[in-house]
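Sequence, please.
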């Protein structure tokens, strides 16, 4: 047994091998899916205090030929690890801008702001700003209606280059939002340094805002801080009217969550905002 142990290669237990195979297969399929245009964007409404739709977040889905609609939880991480996120991210930007351009001039849809999630690897490309500009120019979408959502971890090691990228797009009107606020490394000092327009309170805090005094305190603090820095705040994951009431009472004026609408194909938003003629 000792000799066998020394001479045979036993790196893989079957479970691990299986996992690697599944991952490699998923990667191949995602690569193919990108080429075959199997990705699509869902849109989730962002509403104001009165429930009026003021914007939407674009959320990627994969219309898999066999598995049906697959959520980003099952492929974004893989895309990031393999670099596929660069092609995927470009596609998302282009698709969102194309949608914005199509909405131009249509009553109810004309002024919507569309938020797009940007992954760290995508943002770090030296030509990221040029890629965003290209998506805007090719589609004819107005920069003021595009908002890019960045995460805290992406901005953690923020550099002069990060700020320069943001500033150059911002000069043209593109907005920036800090996503999942409160979950990450939350150095509050960068909030002041970075050229942000908006922060999004993570739904982990919104969820228990009525039952957990700590979460309530965090939410109140974020709202007060954001207002003193002149940042817009969106509360994510609003599911109940009591959560909404709490948030409103503490000065929040924009909301996103199942209470107002789940992510759905663009047509659903178009229908909600453009009632069929009588
Ligand atoms: P996120 O940016 O924090 O997006 C919000 C997620 O919360 C979405 O999940 C949305 O469906 C979900 N959500 C919204 N309202 C509620 C609610 O009231 N209750 C609950 N329980 N959930 C709610 P989704 O669409 O599965 O996206 C998951 C994550 O995948 C996103 O989190 C984002 O980090 C990432 N993602 C989505 N689309 C893209 C994309 O185009 N590019 C990149 N890089 N990442 C994306
Ligand atoms: Ca987001
Ligand atoms: Ca979020
Ligand atoms: Ca999140």
């Amino acid at each position: 047994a000792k000799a066998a142990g020394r001479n045979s290669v036993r790196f893989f237990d079957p479970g691990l091998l299986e996992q690697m195979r599944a991952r490699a297969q998923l990667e191949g399929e995602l690569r193919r899916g990108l080429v075959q245009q199997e990705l699509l964007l869902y849109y989730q409404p962002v509403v104001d205090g009165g429930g009026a739709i003021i914007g939407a977040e674009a959320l990627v889905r994969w219309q898999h030929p066999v598995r049906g609609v697959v959520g980003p939880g099952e492929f974004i991480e893989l895309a990031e690890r393999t670099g596929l996120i660069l092609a995927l991210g470009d596609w998302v930007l282009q698709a969102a801008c194309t949608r914005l351009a199509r909405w131009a001039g249509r009553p109810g849809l004309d002024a919507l702001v569309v938020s797009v999630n940007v992954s760290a690897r995508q943002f770090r490309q030296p030509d990221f700003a040029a890629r965003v500009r290209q998506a805007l120019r090719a589609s004819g979408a107005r920069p003021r209606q595009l908002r890019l959502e960045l995460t805290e971890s992406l901005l953690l090691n923020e550099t002069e280059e990060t700020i320069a990228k943001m500033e150059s797009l911002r000069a043209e009107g593109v907005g920036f939002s800090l996503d999942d606020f409160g979950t990450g490394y939350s150095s509050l000092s960068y909030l002041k340094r970075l050229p942000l327009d908006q922060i999004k309170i993570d739904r982990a805090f919104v969820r228990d805002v009525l039952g957990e005094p700590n979460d309530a305190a965090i939410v109140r603090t974020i709202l007060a801080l954001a207002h003193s820095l002149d940042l817009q705040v969106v509360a994510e994951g609003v599911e109940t009217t009591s959560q909404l009431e709490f948030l409103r009472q503490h000065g929040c004026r924009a909301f996103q969550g199942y209470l107002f609408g789940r992510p759905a194909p663009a047509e659903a938003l178009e229908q909600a905002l453009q009632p069929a003629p009588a």
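The first strand starts at residue 39 and ends at 48.
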